[in-house]
Amino acid sequence: MTAPGTAVEHLGAEYFQDPNAVHARLRAERPVSAVIMPGGMPAWLITGYAEARAALTDQRLRKSWPGRDMAVDSMYAALELHMLNSDPPDHERLRRLVNKAFTSRRVELLRPRITAITAELLDDMSTQRDVDLLASFAFPLPITVICELLGIPVADRDDFRKWSATIVSDTVSPAVFEADAGAMIRYFMALLAAKRHEPADDLLSALIATGDEGDRLSENELVSMAFLLLLAGHETTVNLIASGMLALLLNPGQLDRLRADPSQLGRAVEELLRYVSPVNHATFRFAAEPVEIGGTRIGAGEVVVVALSSADRDPGRYSDPERLDLGRDSSGHLAFGHGIHYCLGAPLARLEAEIAFSGLLSRFGSMRLAVPAESLRWRPSTLIHGLETLPVRLRP
Length: 396
Ligand code: HEM
Description:
By secondary structure, this protein is of the alpha+beta class. Helix content is 50%, strand content 9%. The protein is built from 18 helices and eleven strands. The strands form three sheets. A six-stranded mixed β-sheet has the order 1-2-3-9-6-4. A three-stranded antiparallel β-sheet has the order 5-11-10. Strands 7-8 form a two-stranded antiparallel ribbon. A hairpin with a 2-residue loop joins strand 7 and strand 8. The longest helix is centred in the middle third of the chain and has 24 residues. It is globular, with a radius of gyration of 21 Å. Bound molecules: protoporphyrin IX containing FE. The site of protoporphyrin IX containing FE (HEM) has 25 residues, from helix 13, helix 14 and helix 18.
């Protein structure tokens, strides 16, 4: 599938640790590159901003690929029949069912609860001098919010944290994947059965009711929806908070600037989204027919991976893109994607991030990194760019 005369880039362990370095090199050579994903799959990696934006709205690049038949009772049908894997008209039908719950207006109603959860977590941390900010704050905040919204017992969070880490990992064995994906499916099936029996005032109960009345969501679609919302709700915002805080700690001038003028927080969160890009690349797309992008011909059936983090560091779009600049206009960034699959949870993620950074900055005026930055490790996932841990010292 390679274009004549071009080398194929093998994405391996060094890519997990520093995707930006690999992207900068590939982008400088050409905006669309032939790569081998860590699992061995060949794909086209789009690294240029203009090409990425165009690809995300190109209707010839689809989520369902030739031969895929999700109606077939495969084990994964229960995880894969969701909106992010669907093309129109299914996509619209699935998204419409939950759209309202995630509008800015509805999400704003969650502000008091998000503020209260944040305050509780900050109180717990304030008794300590050294903490892992990821485990103590960046993870529990969004997971608690999404669990409460969906009606999933937050006490089970260690289980589904493990399962979903497996699902987004590029390095686990097929046996581990099957075991953890199976456990996740069985968990949701049992939870949905319990809610059907005893509905509560939560989003999953509302979705079951919609399905029962209009027969609009199959059992597999319900499980897939719950899975997607839970996964998207906690694999992403956690990294905006943790990697965003790391970026601020490594750029003290920018951090001071934000402390001096907290009214700039909204703008700062947009720049942090551009700069840390919690979702490294968009989910896979497949060419339904031959397509030309950035001068490269992509054959029918080939896989296209849009590197969002790379697009947002394209010097053709943002000046001095490798620099964190909280004052810049970062609008147009692709951290939430673009087109019909644009992030449903963007208003929620923005609100959580604003409350989180505001709390962290006002409570811990002298927070600093507790280990050398070079020793920090990133998770082995090409999809999610997130830290394993973030050790910080909260007080001198
Ligand atoms: C900083 C946090 C977040 C980031 C960076 C992020 C990023 C993204 C991106 C890049 C996409 C598009 C993927 C693609 O086109 O392949 C997406 C889609 C999606 N996100 Fe988020 N997300 C975040 C938080 C959330 C939250 C809190 C939720 C809440 C449930 C959520 C739910 C979704 C859903 C359901 C989709 C699929 C939309 C569709 O297919 O129409 N996300 N997100």
